[in-house]
Amino acid sequence: MTSRSADPAPGGAPETGSAAPAPDAAGPAPALALSWRPTLSAPPPRPPGLDPVRRGPLLAALAAAAALAAYVGAVHGTLPAVLLLLGTGLGVALFHSRFGFTSAWRQFIAVGNGTGLRAHALLLGTTATLFALIIGTGTGLFGNAPQPSAGPIGIALLLGAFLFGIGMQLGGACASGTLFAVGSGQSAILVTLAGFIIGSVLYSAAWPLVADLPALPPFLLSEHVGWAGSWAITVVVLLAMVVGTRAVQNRRVPPPVGAVPTASGALRAIRGSWPLAAGAVALAVLGGAVLLVSGGAWGITSAFNLWGAKLLQLLGAHPEEWAFWRQPDQAAQLAGPVLADKNSLTDIGIVLGAAIAAAAAGSWRLHTGLAWNTVAAGLAGGVLMGVGARLAGGCNIGAYLAGIASGSLHGWLWAAVALAGTWVGLRARALFGLANPKPGDGVC
Predict the structure, then answer these.
(1) I want to staple 319 with a disulfide (CB 3.0 to 4.6 A). Which of 33, 236, 309, 332 is the partner?
(2) Is 15 a domain residue?
């Protein structure tokens, strides 16, 4: 999900442009004319007003979040309850800012609009700053020592990131986008979530086949130049990313990103929508808080693997006998309750937080009448992302965000290869009759 439309376009923003191009569209600008406002083919559209608050869904979501947090706190302790509440905050921030990864990369590859990627740079830079402060000083709560997210550099990383990039475009959402879209009532994304779980289970069943793929050890900048040096290098690369996306946008002159309904004044904080920059900072602070209280970075997709294995157990299967689930850490995860699992708690919180935000914005509603091509693409994309995230050791959050913020080389490699997968995914969308942004669109 990062653009003014969510990956699956909750809240009414179109996934691709449909308005007629502006007749007085601006002409191309020189590639190096890096103005404060990068060139667009038409003025950004005015956001529409919000629908009335959906009081029933809002009260139900608030009650569910409060009751579940109280139950988790009573049964499993304060730390799990805090993680659930942090996840709820993440869901609110994701929905209100419509912060996406799938749509941001689609818009950049298809038409050259770098708005979303520049928001990524702010999110990554702010998170990297918080990670350097927390991990570099060894500051942790609940007795946890914060650890960076670093992954091996090998075939599994590259193949997994590539599959994930394709899957994002077919499924219409990334890992975080899937959760917040489900919470906002986007029933089509339930198919993507199901595919995510299926793909994760397929990976764990076939794990012996890929467990020993060639790989180099993880590479952390902090181990070579310290946390201050790691932070400085990361910020410089992110600034280059901002400059590069501005240059591309000024050369390609894309349509603007579609606007989503918004309130005005102080109500905007409660009802949305938020500026992308506000969403980036909020997500970084909440993600830093997850690291502070749990000792590990915010992650998403390992929970899908756990949910799939738990479901198989309910159906009478025995995934605990698979080689993957016999590993010590995985065996402990499978033996424990879902509501004590770190990533499951934040995932469930994201769904609840998105439901709260969508209902407050007046946009929560169940969508029915799914087209076959949407279902097929969502399922295929979800499976590809499920397999890809497990191969790569993370998704757009666990590998891309947490990896880059930790100063890990694998995060940057994941981003580059997933971007290549996005290019392929955009072409694969045509096989399912799904549209992509075009230069002549009124919005993208």
Answers:
(1) 309
(2) no
pTM for the structure as a whole: 0.91
Give the pLDDT confidence of 205-253 residue by residue, as tens digits: 999 999 999 999 999 999 999 999 999 999 999 999 999 999 999 999 9
In a domain, 19, yes or no: no
**β-pair partners for 408:** 220
Residue 368: the pLDDT is: 72
> What is each CA distance from 358 to 94, 181, 195, in whole angstroms?
10, 9, 24
The number of distinct structural domains making up the chain is 1
Query: Are the C-beta atoms of residues 320 and 334 closer than 8 Å to each other?
Result: yes
Q: Are 190 and 375 in contact (CB under 8 A)?
A: no
Question: What are the tokens at 308?
Answer: 């799939």
The residues facing 269 across adjacent strands are none
Q: CB-based contacts of 120: which residues, under 8 Å, 6+ apart?
A: 2, 101, 104, 241, 280
> Is 349 within the bounds of a domain?
yes
Say how far apart CA 302 and CA 171 lie, in whole Å.
Answer: 18
Q: How far is CA 120 from the centre of its chain?
A: 10
The HSE-up count of residue 128 (CA atoms within 13 Å, CB side) is: 30
Alpha carbon distances (Å) from 181 to 172, 177, 193, 214, 264: 10, 6, 10, 36, 23
Residue 31 falls inside a structural domain: no
